[in-house]
Write a structure and sequence with these properties.
mainly alpha, Arc Repressor Mutant, subunit A
């Protein structure tokens, strides 16, 4: 009987260790909770605490507050107190967190181990960011940098990537993220939590900043060992952002491929699937595929009807804003309804950061501005667009700034905006927006020959080539040539896109 119990314990511990080593922290935590006894080895309990930290810091406190670690195991002593400090910080008990950090630092210094000191510094950074005390977090970097081993340096670099966005030094953050990811082998399961977060964060920045050397690193990490389901939301965001980064360079094939891959992930919420469908609809619309865009938008609307938006995590609510924006040009009543539902739920927050992020508010202001203008509230809409542009300019988000300028130009036809708009697009000349700007530049001077204008009017009425030929008394060959020239003039590839563009430009 004793052998049987011992064998059973060995089996569950093996399953626990395997799940933990592969980054399946949710599974590891469940295995431990179901099978562990009160006399588990210290190392096993510490691993369980790590596994629980991702979702349940209160359970970390329950596990570690009663865990006795002898002074002969200083590394375990430091790890216990450092983990307790982060768990206390996550539950907003900063006084207890500080007491544990001081105890951990004293233990680390007592044995003279710079790597243990560095780990305490890393945990201290996280504690201060939980309290939104950025100067104190920056000061804690001095401890983190004392680490000398590769693992210690990895966590020190990781800590700095957490601080930099709060200081609005996002380009430096991207550089540190590239450096961090180059230290990680995408075909190994170790440090999967760091890898998932860093890839997610860098992908978002490649979408927002022109950083050509970041794209290969993101692709390398996405092409490696699959991330566990615990990090499916990070993979979703990374694929989505990387797809848009490709689109901004004119690579629409890979843009759709990555957006499709994001939408096929199973372990993300229904609200994120709404966002994925909206992204596909938006991208299809960007290069004139309006029928395809409508199919994707219908799917997004159907998915949205099944979501309990009050139960969503705050950043998922961006789906309601995207729906409002996408409907603004085709159904203002639907657009107003989605905007009202978004406003009921309050502001969005990002899982990448601990506090309110000005960029997220700017994203919301941009979508709101588009919708308000469509609803006839031009002054209010322009105010939202200009507020969003101010934030994007501060962060160096050129393409987002350009989108604000383009929307303002379409609402005002103020040609003084065009030079700034073209300058912001200097690194995005292959994007759909750059193509639109080239049309803006000559739209006011556009004058179609009389016959071509008549052909355009007939196309806008939905008539076929044969019907236009009979109406205008010209051969089908001549009408076809006029339509081809109209496609070239308006830079579109289909009749539906031609109609939409002529309506947009009021021709």
């Amino acid at each position: 009987m004793g052998r049987l119990k011992g064998s059973s314990a060995a089996l569950w511990r093996e399953a626990f260790d395997s799940a933990f080593d592969e980054g399946h922290f949710e599974d590891a935590a469940r295995i431990f909770d179901d099978r562990a006894s009160r006399s588990e080895p210290i190392e096993t309990v510490l691993r369980a605490a790590h596994a629980h930290m991702h979702a349940d810091p209160a359970q970390v406190l329950r596990l570690l507050l009663t865990l006795r670690v002898p002074a002969t195991k200083p590394a375990a002593l430091v790890e216990r107190d450092a983990l307790l400090a982060e768990a206390f910080a996550r539950t907003r008990d900063f006084e207890s967190a500080d007491a544990r950090l001081e105890a951990a630092l004293a233990s680390a210094r007592a044995v003279g181990d710079p790597d243990l000191v560095g780990i305490v510094g890393y945990r201290r950074v996280r504690r201060y960011l939980q309290a939104e005390d950025v100067p104190a977090a920056r000061h804690a970097m001095e401890l983190s940098r004392q680490a000398v081993s590769p693992v210690g340096r990895l966590y020190s670099l990781y800590a700095e990537t957490l601080i930099l966005p709060y200081e609005e030094r996002v380009r430096e953050q991207a550089e540190r993220l590239i450096e961090l990811l180059r230290m990680l082998d995408p075909n190994e399961s170790s440090f999967v939590d760091v890898r998932a977060w860093a890839t997610h964060a860098l992908s978002v920045l490649t979408r927002e900043l022109y950083i050509p050397n970041a794209l290969p690193e993101v692709q390398r990490q996405l092409g490696g060992l699959a991330w566990p389901k615990d990090f499916a939301p990070n993979r979703f965001q990374a694929l989505k952002a990387f797809g848009w980064a490709k689109a901004l360079q004119g690579d629409y094939f890979n843009a759709f491929r990555h957006l499709k891959a994001a939408s096929e992930l199973k372990d993300v919420s229904a609200a994120w699937h709404v966002v994925a469908a909206c992204d596909r609809a938006y991208l299809a619309r960007c290069f004139g595929e309006h029928r395809w865009s409508r199919v994707e938008l219908d799917e997004a609307e159907q998915l949205a009807s099944q979501v309990d938006w009050h139960a969503t995590l705050s950043e998922e609510r961006i789906g309601l804003l995207l729906l409002a924006e996408l409907f603004s040009g085709i159904d203002t009543a639907g657009s107003a309804m989605y905007l009202a539902r978004y406003r009921e739920l309050g502001e969005i927050k990002s899982p990448l950061h601990y506090r309110r992020d000005a960029r997220l508010q700017a994203f919301a202001q941009f979508s709101t501005g588009i919708v308000e203008i469509a609803l006839g509230n031009k002054r209010r809409g322009l105010a939202e667009l200009r507020a969003a542009r101010k934030v994007f300019e501060r962060f160096g988000y050129d393409f987002r700034t350009a989108r604000c300028l383009a929307a303002e130009y379409e609402a005002t036809r103020n040609r003084d905006l065009l030079p700034s708009l073209e300058e912001k697009l200097r690194n995005y000349e292959h994007s759909w927006l750059a193509a639109s700007i080239r049309r803006f530049g000559r739209s006011s001077a556009l004058s179609l020959p009389p016959m071509r204008k008549r052909v355009l009017d007939e196309v806008c009425q939905g008539k076929s080539t044969a019907e236009i030929s009979r109406t205008l008394g010209r051969s089908k060959f001549t009408i076809s040539n006029h339509i081809k020239e109209l496609f070239k003039t308006f830079e579109v590839k289909s009749r539906s896109a031609l109609v939409a563009e002529s309506v947009r430009r009021k021709i």
